[in-house]
Prior knowledge:
The complex is a heterodimer of chains A (255) and B (259).
Chain A: H1 2-35, H2 39-49, H3 54-78, H4 85-123, H5 126-132, H6 137-175, H7 180-190, H8 193-219, H9 225-254
Helix pairs in contact in A: 1-6, 2-6, 3-4, 3-6, 4-6, 4-7, 4-8, 4-9, 6-8, 8-9
Chain B: E1 3-5, E2 9-12, E3 24-28, H1 35-42, E4 54-55, E5 58-59, H2 65-72, E6 75-78, H3 90-101, H4 106-119, H5 135-147, E7 153-157, H6 165-182, E8 185-189, H7 193-199, E9 202-207, E10 210-215, H8 217-221, H9 226-233, H10 249-254
Parallel strand pairs in B: 3-8, 3-9, 6-7, 7-8
Antiparallel strand pairs in B: 1-2, 4-5, 9-10
Helix pairs in contact in B: 3-4, 3-5, 4-5, 6-7
Amino acid sequence: MRLIRELWESMIESLAGLGSVVRFLLRLLAASPRAMLRLDLISQQIYNAGALSLVIIMLSGLFVGMVLGLQGFQLLQRFGSEDALGTAATIGLVKELGPVVTALLFAGRAGTALASELGLMRATDQLSAMEMMAVDPIRRVVVPRFLGGVIAMPLLAAIFSVVGIYGAQLVGVQIMGVDAGSFWSQMRAAVGLRDINEGIVKSCVFGVTCSLIAVYEGYYAMPTAEGVGRATTRTVVTSAVFTLFLDYLITAAFL
Amino acid sequence: MGYAVNGNRPVFAGLDMDIPRGRITAVMGPSGTGKTTLLRLITGQVRADSGSVMVAGEELRGIRRADLYVLRRRMGMLFQNGALLTDLSVFENVAFPLREHTDLPERLIRQLVLTKLQAVGLRGAAELMPSELSGGMSRRVALARAIVMDPEILIYDEPFVGLDPISLGVILRLIRRLNDALGITSIVVSHDVQEISTVADLVFLLSGGKVVARGTPQELQSYPSDIVRQFIGGLADGPVPFHFPAPDYFGELLAREDA
């Protein structure tokens, strides 16, 4: 009986949490049109979330692509179809690994930076000071960071996929000896617009999700060292779980 | 006016205060009496549960967010820790309200900011970042930012904590000068009895969620009340207990660990 009650209470709590995140998202969207007039603030945040994540995204993309090239070659060789390596690696990267791994890395680098920055601004009264200066912190601070993340994420995912394909080509063609012509031509023939679209939709959805979770956790962090730490941890964990959950839903929707 | 934290831990019950326009009013009281909460009520950061909070003729209970922001443009607030925006330089911190609320040309913004920084003695620190400032300097920059829009009401939350004697003297003189020269209504929350006595025109002493004394600093020196005597004299014994409620001291020291 107690177990059922606890389960029920935790379900209600989770639903309330989800409702509060949705309300926060609506608040961000309502403030977005006016915030968009401040392009300098948004471009600064695209730089923070995007450009500063480039090295980690490109390095990870290269290694993921190289591993994919190696594993794919070993597997396809068994069926004598190693020429399809380009297709396999590209579809894997564009539809799945590109958006998902980028989202996980984004949550770990840019998401935690956003959450801890906002949490510390709360803890040091910077957000209250803005409110006292009649400046809405949602419009001035939160929305540019949210939009910066939303815009940066699909771009990072695209760069991840491109570098990943190059990594797969490096291992498959340059090291393992797959024919370069077959690698590229098969890829071009088999990868369609629908595959690309799936990747774009996923990276946009993950961009909104990860950025939203980061700014929400940071904005509502308890104004203490422990609270900011917790918000940062929750940002990574929640973003990862939601990314994988939404990945399944979108994949199923595109079948 | 009444206010309770989360609706169940009362901070104020039947608090009645009137703060005169154009004068320096000090709000004092023992720690935990809700002085900072009172400032939050006056600035509309929290809303009263009952009664009324009127600021410059505007009722704050139930005020719309947009109206509150219009009212706040007439207020300046100095936070305990300065609350400077850490990603902006000293100059940009002071220029922040001007950039957000006006379309003034850059040349005029520069002049206004430098004038205010000169007033707090930190014109030379304009290009420094907040992380390069000491606590007292941060507070002075925050004061320059609070006055840059020429507010009608200026609110200071514990402005003297952790200041060296020179900065303290400067801040005290600034509070007085701003008040006299610009006719600003100043509200200072502090428990530094000596410092506040030198600048305040009127003092409210709060305790237990109520005003226990009201008068000039001189009147408070000879106020016929135990709690005022204890607070002004800094005495450990009196109506305000120094110790948080706890079980018997020796009993607890001698108690067995597993008890």
